[in-house]
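Our consortium's second objective concerns turning raw sequence data into structural hypotheses that experimental partners can test. To show how far this objective has progressed, the report includes one record in full. It was chosen at random from the queue rather than selected for favorable results. The single chain below, 100 residues long, was entered without modification.
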Amino acid sequence: MTLRGGPDLQELLAFMEAFLSEESYVFCCFPNGSVEALAEYAPLGLFWENEGLTAILSIENAGKAGVETEPCFRRILLAVHSSLDAVRLTAALSRAIVSL
């Protein structure tokens, strides 16, 4: 895969590659969670909310953590090399996904 960079939106969209992950994920909120305690579940991402620490876990690891495994989501991976000067890329992707 060759990634072309630059600020031109149309060029970025033309050369971008998208992949749908095989694995499914769930968003899980841990009101008293800590980053250290969740590390064993290999979270894809962590963020703090008013309700507690939210982790993005694979279905398998969510089951091990004893939390709900529904609803589940799959990750869209986008391969694109964009310039920091590139603008409107996220908006263009959002429009494309909504139209599916």
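The partners drew two points from this record. Helices lie at 9-15, 35-38, 59-65, 89-98. The chain has one domain: 15-98. Both points have been shared with the crystallography group to help prioritize constructs.
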